[in-house]
Amino acid sequence: MADHHITDPRYEDFQVQDLGARLTTFEQLITLITHFVPAIAAVSLLVGGIGVLNIMLVSVTDRTREIGTRKAIGASDSAILGQFIIEAMALAGLGGLIGVVLGVGLILLTKLLIPYLGTTGFLSSFDPVLAASPIAVAFVISLAIGLLAGGYPAWRAAQLNPIEALRYE
To answer: Rg for the chain (alpha carbons), in Å?
Structure first.
């Protein structure tokens, strides 16, 4: 310290760093991200499911007279149930398809831009992978969300009394 003319040890003009400590910090950051991303995805799925549920409840309410007419001319509860389940799954499936297209597009765009962003550092070894199985899983999960979120509104539509439904304004 005398060679560097430092009178107060709090103000040293050099540091000694252990790369092992940096590696540990980086591993902790990766672990945090690994746990944080699925939590955000779960919240997104929950919000999407609630959105599908609300849309389907509004659809059932708006089409009460139609449901009453269909039941009055002989439509079974299972036909009404199936109609609304299919509509909910189509709605969620369309959302899943849009998400898959955006995700695949983002990966392809990233693959195109990486060579222009530099060949040193982290990006030099970064190679996004596009695989069919995660895409299929994401789409199936969106259909499952539609099935789960559309179940209650579909059941509610199937349980409507045709006479009461025809009176609905």
So the answer is: 28
Phi, psi of 117 (to 5 degrees): -95, 0
Report the phi/psi class of residue 55: left, alpha or beta, with left for phi > 0 and alpha for psi in -120 to 50: alpha
- Cβ of 36: how many Cβ atoms within 10 Å? 10
What pLDDT does residue 122 have?
61
- Give which of 82, 80, 78 is closest to 90, Cα–Cα: 82
**Placement of tokens 């693959």 in the chain:** 111
Residue 154 pLDDT:
95
CA dist., res. 67 & res. 76, Å (int): 10
Classify residue 155 as exposed, middle or buried by CB count within 10 Å of its CB (0-12, 13-18, 19+): middle
Other CB atoms within 10 A of residue 144 CB: 15
Lowest model confidence (mean pLDDT) among 1-15, 45-59, 75-89, 93-107: 1-15
pLDDT in tens, 99-126: 999 999 998 998 888 777 766 666 666 7
Tokens matching residue 92? 């969620």
> Would you give the DSSP letter of residue 74?
T
Counting every residue, how long is the chain?
169
